[in-house]
């Protein structure tokens, strides 16, 4: 792991998806945290255009920063759909800075939104792992669970009623109704 000097307000650390950049000091909203830097690639130069890695930061149609260099600690910053920082892109200066858009507390992971193109190409197919999306998924799972419980309860009540009318058949009928209702809910939850 690369060493970070102590006067910087961040460090590289373990995140849910590998490594990430974490605040070590309070960072005020609006503060420039770190520069995303590396060699500048010119798309008009064929050798430059051939370079491919996941740390390329496009400034515009022509210029791209190759952020794969070791010293570029900003490359550790992960994507979030509800980030606490943003990329301040300056194509004319060919520079990118990462800036806080919220107050960040020590221990918080620093994130910015990688943008729609990146999301569609890399995150959507595998499912975004950012805290905001995890939370959304958790909520959906809880709702599906509650819905399944409701349907099951309804089926049981129905079975009880039916059983009361024909006591002899109670066991068989309950089983059948339950199986039917559960099969239906599972299908809906998956869709
Ligand atoms: Zn997300």
TrEMBL record:
SMART domains: SET (SM00317)
Ranges for region Disordered: 142-191
Compartment(s): Chromosome
InterPro entries: SET2_Histone-Lys_MeTrsfase (IPR050777), SET_dom (IPR001214), SET_dom_sf (IPR046341)
Bias type Basic and acidic residues, positions: 142-163
Residue ranges of domain SET in the record: 8-115
A cellular-component GO term for this protein: chromosome
Residue ranges with Basic residues bias: 167-178
Secretion signal span: none
Keyword set, alphabetical order: Chromosome, Methyltransferase, S-adenosyl-L-methionine, Transferase
Domain of life: Bacteria
Main location, first listed in the record: cytoplasm
Alphabetical GO biological process terms: methylation
Keyword match Methyltransferase: yes
Gene Ontology MF terms: methyltransferase activity
PANTHER family in the cross-refs: SET DOMAIN PROTEINS
Descriptive protein name: SET domain-containing protein-lysine N-methyltransferase
Biological source species: Bradyrhizobium cajani
Organism phylogeny: Bacteria, Pseudomonadati, Pseudomonadota, Alphaproteobacteria, Hyphomicrobiales
